[in-house]
Design goal:
Elements lengths: L3 E10 L2 E11 L4 E5 L6 H8 L7 E6 L2 E2 L5 H6 L2 E3 L12 H8 L8 H4 L4 H20 L15 H13 L5 E5 L7 H18 L2 E5 L3 H7 L2 E6 L2 E6 L1 H6 L1 H6 L11
Parallel strand pairs: 3-8, 3-9, 6-7, 7-8
Antiparallel strand pairs: 1-2, 1-4, 4-5, 9-10
Helix pairs in contact: 3-6
Bound molecules: adenosine-5'-triphosphate.
């Protein structure tokens, strides 16, 4: 059974069909990319998956559970965590606080609101801090826990965002343009980290990305959207050869073009 099963999803905004009957499946333990030219519907799709937009019709299931009508916090509780195109972190807070906020939905005592007055809240906080420290080490932020996020280089901030999503202990991680705005070295580091997330943690990754080199290297499977429709779905090699895809990208070969 696929981890994520997307069927016939349509999203209409007053007069405009942003997604038109899109379907595909994400297998457990894989990296799956969604690509497409500007305006193809990729962000809309991510917003449907994370509960920010409601699909006009169609269904999205995670391990059989229907996500389609759920608000974002319920989708997150079922195990879908996401990062954003533009960094969405508290810049003045240290890395550790940003990561602890990522754990909030997992807390029973609600250590943030209880202000650590109760012993069981303090114990729970310590347990979460251990796990946050472990995750920070995993993404290479072990020595940055006390640094305010705003003082970190851009590429490192993107890692903090990914770490915060991991702190939610997701089964599926949605990455919205994880290497946008990064330099070459930062891109390679991020690619390595995404592979590690899949291989060491066994978490499935669904990413939207414009950097074709990255997509072709990383993804096990690629779904291509154009004008809200799915025009191709397959391995990176299959998709690169697909004439619909080549045409959608204005006749250029996808592996030659940073779209
Ligand atoms: N909230 C909204 N209200 C109205 N139209 C919207 C809304 N969000 C997206 N759209 C429209 O839906 C279409 C798909 O947009 P979307 O942002 O999903 O594409 P995209 O593939 O993510 O593009 P890009 O690569 O430029 O980020 C576009 O025509 C866009 O203008």
């Amino acid at each position: 059974m696929p981890l994520l099963d997307v069927r016939d999803v349509t999203v209409r905004f007053a007069g405009l069909t942003a997604l038109d009957g899109v379907g595909f499946a994400v297998a457990p333990g894989t990296v799956h990319a969604v690509i497409g030219p500007n305006g193809a519907g990729k962000s809309t799709f991510f917003n449907v998956l994370s509960g920010v937009y409601k699909a006009t019709s169609g269904s999205v299931r995670l391990d059989g559970a229907e996500l389609t009508a759920l608000p974002p916090h319920r989708v997150a509780a079922l195990g879908v965590a996401r990062t954003f195109q533009n960094i969405a972190l508290s810049r003045h807070l240290p890395v550790v606080d940003n990561l602890m906020l990522g754990r909030h939905r997992l807390t029973r005592a609600g250590f943030v609101s209880s202000g650590l007055r109760l012993p069981h809240a303090r114990r729970e906080w310590a347990r979460h801090l251990d796990r946050v420290t472990e995750i920070a080490g995993f993404v290479g932020l072990g020595d940055r826990l006390g640094t305010p996020v705003g003082l970190l280089p851009y590429g490192v901030q993107k890692r903090v965002e990914l770490a915060r999503a991991l702190c939610m202990e997701p089964r599926l991680l949605l990455l919205d343009e994880p290497v946008a705005g990064m330099n070459g070295g930062e891109r390679l580091d991020m690619a390595e980290l995404i592979v590690a997330v899949r291989e060491s943690l066994g978490i499935s990754v669904l990413l939207v990305e414009h950097d074709m080199g990255m997509v072709m290297r990383l993804a096990d499977r690629v779904t291509v959207l154009d004008f809200g429709r799915r025009i191709a779905d397959g391995t990176p090699e299959e998709v690169q050869r697909d004439p619909h895809v080549v045409r959608a990208y204005l006749g250029t070969s996808p592996d030659q073009e940073d779209m």
